[in-house]
Amino acid sequence: MAVRFENEIPAEEYFAPGHRACMGCGEALAVRLVCKALGKDVIIVTATGCVEIISSALPWTSWRVPWIHTLFENVGAVVSGIESAYKALLRKGRKKLEPGRRIKVVGFAGDGGTADIGLQALSGAMERGHDFLYVCFDNEAYMNTGIQRSGSTPYGAWTTTAPHGAKSIGQRTWKKNMPEIAVAHGIPYVATACPSYPYDLMRKVRKAVETQGPSYLHVLSPCCTGWRFEPKLTIKLGRLAVETGVFPLYEVENGVYKLSIDMDVESLKPVREYLMLQGRFRHLPESEIEKIQERVVSEYKKLRKKVRMSQED
Ligand SMILES: Cc1ncc(C[n+]2csc(CCOP(=O)(O)OP(=O)(O)O)c2C)c(N)n1
Ligand SMILES: [Mg+2]
């Protein structure tokens, strides 16, 4: 059954309140919305990282659905094993489901667990074509262990392992394009999302659940602690990431790209508006801000070109 979320958000909470996330945590909000959209017919596998730490301090748990914590590096492998085992149990009749009911196996990991250390396991799972959804909650650093840089940390950002100073501007590499890496696997559904756009996020989760085979959702999750901003700005920063073109919202369905919010290059807001609200970028000189601006525009143009070309094919 196709579920839409244009007007309302379901009241059910599968990620319970009372967890230990920081005030204003974009990741906790994203998890909550994703869980609402997933519903109860799921088995969730979560890598080590903020989501696990805040939700599972024994003897308490925030999970109202079947949930397993696994290592930093192997969500893809654990998801694959559970999905295969469940299929075998159904085939052998040792597990029965009502007609039309389907249990979706869902992997959750941070950007470090996805773009860096868990990439191999995720790649294998996507390649083998398991029926699963993988959600990367991207707060752009290893936040749980104290704000160390990851492959998903943006250029110019301060982190504890990419400090800025006389000889360094902070992170020296450009953010790894993880959604494109997922697209390169030829899987049926890839999308980007952000909790600042809750209906869009939840609609994409449902679409991924209804997809047969692997789907990948990359969720930008503003982090007030690591990005150095006031907790009240979480939603605004997510919106600015999208409005500046830093983090465009799009879907790739069977290779066809579609922008979820279709802005032309001229209508993008200046990246400065996004960068200057965050302490992690406040050291950047004008020349570096311009460099980031140029990069954002060129990446955005490339994306729009992919939209055009894939829709023409
Ligand atoms: C093999 C291994 N290396 C390092 C760690 C320590 N560690 C646990 S969580 C984490 C950072 C997680 O970062 P990310 O995946 O981005 O999630 P976040 O905490 O930012 O949500 C690290 C380095 C570990 N648990 N296992
Ligand atoms: Mg992270």
Give a written overview of the molecule:
This protein starts with 25 loop residues before the first helix and ends with a helix. The chain has 11 helices and 10 strands. It is 37% helix and 14% strand. The protein has a single domain, classed as Thiamin diphosphate (ThDP)-binding fold, Pyr/PP domains (Rossmann fold, 3-Layer(aba) Sandwich). It has 313 residues and is an alpha/beta fold. The strands form 2 sheets. It has an 8-stranded mixed beta sheet, with helices on both faces. Strands 5-6 form a two-stranded antiparallel ribbon. Residues 27, 48-51, 72-73, 109-113, 137, 139, 142-145, 150 line the site of thiamine diphosphate (TPP).
Could you name the CATH homologous superfamily? Thiamin diphosphate (ThDP)-binding fold, Pyr/PP domains
Q: Could you give the count of β-strands?
A: 10
As for the CATH topology, it is: Rossmann fold
Helix and strand element order: HEHEHEHHEEEHEHEHHEEHH
| Outline type | globular
Distance between the termini: 29 Å
* Integer count of domains: 1
What's the CATH class, please?
Alpha Beta
**Largest sheet, described in full?**
8 strands, mixed
Q: Bin the helical content.
A: 25-40%
Q: Helix count, per DSSP?
A: 11
Structural Rg: 19 Å
Q: SSE layout and pairings?
A:
Elements: H1 26-38, E1 42-46, H2 50-55, E2 67-69, H3 75-91, E3 104-110, H4 111-116, H5 119-128, E4 132-138, E5 164-165, E6 168-169, H6 178-183, E7 189-193, H7 198-210, E8 215-220, H8 224-227, H9 234-243, E9 250-253, E10 256-259, H10 271-275, H11 286-312
Parallel strand pairs: 1-2, 1-3, 3-4, 4-8, 7-8
Antiparallel strand pairs: 5-6, 7-9, 9-10
Helix pairs in contact: 1-7, 3-5
Thiamine diphosphate binds next to helix 2, strand 3 and helix 4.
